[in-house]
Amino acid sequence: MAGSNEEVLLAVFSAWGESIDAAVAATMENFAADCVWEQTGMPTTTGPEEAAQLMRSMTDMGFASIGVECRNVVADGDVVCSERVDTIFRADGSTVGIFPVVGVTEFRDGKISSWREYFDSANLAQLA
């Protein structure tokens, strides 16, 4: 996925909306080898394989995709900040949960090198 850092991040979000398999592929393609992905209340991953495994684990919980509605995306050099609403869907299209999220994504050489996401971890109870 060539393009600006903002375009890369938006393409990753688009892949999340397609399927977990597409999300895994986008993760493997766009995360730097040492990328640290931190999410409130979730395990921190290092590298694309750990991040992809976290994405794959969503299918074990019956989740099929993550719709992303971006409210604001701001890019400055190697940093892209996103304010968004993530909706997790089951394979039948029903909604599992809705999560307002703010993310700070850093890039190095066109790859995501660091990603910190902030949301109300109490919303994770929706996943049970």
How are the strands ordered across the major sheet? Answer: 2-1-6-5-4-3
Query: What is the ordering of alpha helices and beta strands?
Result: HHEEHEEEE
Count of helical stretches: 3
Number of domains: 1
Give a topology summary.
Blueprint: H1 5-18, H2 20-30, E1 31-39, E2 45-46, H3 47-60, E3 63-76, E4 79-90, E5 95-108, E6 111-118
Parallel strand pairs: 1-6
Antiparallel strand pairs: 1-2, 3-4, 4-5, 5-6
Explain this structure.
With 128 residues, the protein is of the alpha+beta class. The chain has one domain: Nuclear Transport Factor 2, Chain: A (Roll). It contains 3 helices and 6 strands; from the N terminus they run H-H-E-E-H-E-E-E-E. Strands 2-1-6-5-4-3 form a 6-stranded mixed sheet, with helices on one face. Strand 4 and strand 5 form a beta hairpin. The longest helix has 14 residues, at 5-18. The termini are far apart. The mean pLDDT is 93.
Characteristic terms for this protein:
128 residues; single chain; Nuclear Transport Factor 2, Chain: A
Write a concise synopsis of the structure shown.
By secondary structure, the protein is an alpha+beta fold. Helix content is 30%, strand content 46%. It contains three helices and six strands.
